[in-house]
Design brief:
342 residues, alpha/beta, three-stranded antiparallel beta sheet, 12 strands, globular
């Protein structure tokens, strides 16, 4: 659920904001002492301090490189400096207000943009084999799209695969209504419903252990980090044993993250946009730790960074995007028992 115009290959055209950073000046003064003694002391202290400063500078530089090390991208010195200086977070009062108004902000987003903002996601089958059509004799497959928006993910798949039944849910009632109003919406093949996956029990609408494939495409990042575990625990309950959760979202140090101006930071790697919607930027390590706590089988799961270049032809710009992409598997007790017996 990005606020940038998404292309069919999954990349986006970015609206740029001007950023600024402010240096902190330090004014340090030594107390007055006897002039002669002071001069002698200064000579010794200066030599020692110079050595200490040089050592500390080297250590700080080394620590910076380690702290901002990234397997998918090397940050520039300017980018590292900007991230270091952006330490002040939005006040608790405003953060609580954003959380209370999260649904309203997404509803307003769809009110402004209706069904015209995102393009249909034809790229998904290239990234996830689970979405490709299967032989009809295997029977009907059940899929769930979490954060369906106006249906840009489900319409191409419904057109190409007669074996699929889709559940589709979204936080925004307006978005769900757009799905239901689409001429391709067929209650025999899909069921759209409004849901807050952090608190509304999915099993009220979807039977336990019934979904073959779940998709979360740019969805988890919009949820407060404290509630992400509740959302994933809710999802895994309705998945079949051995079922897949297909995931793509914003990656750590994505270009969009580095463009946030001071005053937009909510917490580490978590930011608020101008319209009140929020975005978290995942590391693969953080994501694997999260899904592991929620019960997914990490021995069968996959997670990686995906790099794309976004071209803004109008502005003549090409910028690097970083996404986290994963395939997370619900444990299958039957398979595990068979493996143990072997």
């Amino acid at each position: 659920m990005d606020n940038n115009s998404c292309q069919q290959d999954g990349t986006c055209e970015i609206d740029f904001d001007e950023n600024s950073a402010h240096a902190v000046d330090h004014d340090v003064r030594d107390p007055s002492v006897d002039v002669l003694n002071m001069e002698v002391k200064k000579m010794a202290v200066t030599d020692t301090k110079s050595e200490q400063d040089a050592s500390e500078k080297t250590t700080r530089s080394r620590n910076l490189e380690e702290n901002f090390c990234h397997s998918a991208r090397t940050l520039s010195g300017q980018e590292i400096t900007k991230l270091r200086r952006d330490v002040n977070c939005v006040s608790d009062f405003k953060q609580n207000k954003l959380e209370r108004e999260a649904q309203k902000n997404w509803d307003l987003f769809y009110k402004r943009n209706t069904t015209k903002f995102f393009k249909d996601r034809h790229w998904t089958k290239r990234e996830f084999d689970e979405l490709c059509p299967v032989e009809s004799e295997t029977g009907r497959r059940t899929m769930l799209e979490v954060g369906c928006g106006v249906g840009n993910f489900i319409w191409p798949l419904l057109h190409e695969d007669d074996s699929v039944f889709f559940y589709a849910c979204d936080f925004s009632p307006r978005a769900v209504q757009f799905v239901k109003d689409n001429p391709d919406y067929d209650p025999e093949r899909c069921c759209a419903f409004q849901c807050d996956i952090t608190s509304d029990d999915l099993s009220v609408t979807i039977p336990h252990d019934s979904v073959d494939v779940v998709s979360m495409i740019f969805v988890l990042s919009a949820i407060h980090p404290d509630k992400m575990e509740a959302a994933l625990t809710n999802i895994i309950k309705v998945m079949k044993p051995g079922g897949s959760l297909l995931f793509r979202d914003y990656g750590l140090y994505d270009y969009a993250m580095l463009r946030f101006a001071p005053g937009h930071k909510l917490s580490e790697n978590f930011y608020v946009r101008q319209d009140g919607t929020r975005a978290y930027y995942f590391s693969t390590e953080k994501l694997l730790e999260l899904v592991g706590r929620c019960g997914f089988d990490l021995t069968q799961s996959q997670c990686e960074y995906v790099q794309r270049d976004t071209v803004n032809k109008k502005e003549g710009l090409c910028v690097p995007r970083i996404f986290t992409q994963g395939r997370f598997i619900k444990p299958n007790p039957t398979t595990n028992m068979t493996a143990n017996n072997v």
